[in-house]
Amino acid sequence: MSRLYLHCVICSRRQADGLISGAAWGRLELPQGVQVEHPAFRDSTFRACPSCCTDHPDWQERVLSSFGLSAGFGLRPGPAR
Length: 81
What we know:
Elements (H helix, E strand, L loop, with lengths): L4 E3 L6 E3 L2 H5 L2 E4 L11 E2 L2 E4 L1 H6 L3 H8 L9 E3 L3
């Protein structure tokens, strides 16, 4: 069953997933095979809501450090649009 909601890794906000709504959310893709247990982690990707992306320009680094990960292992951060 497909997930119907986007889930913010920072504030836990949930929003219905769709092409328009999803485009505004920030993305942080981890390399394939990385295992993280968190509701906002899906298909090797963390998502952050537009408010958190605006309020925390360094949100990607914050997320990585909170999980004990380093930015130097081939991450593909996506811009918050």
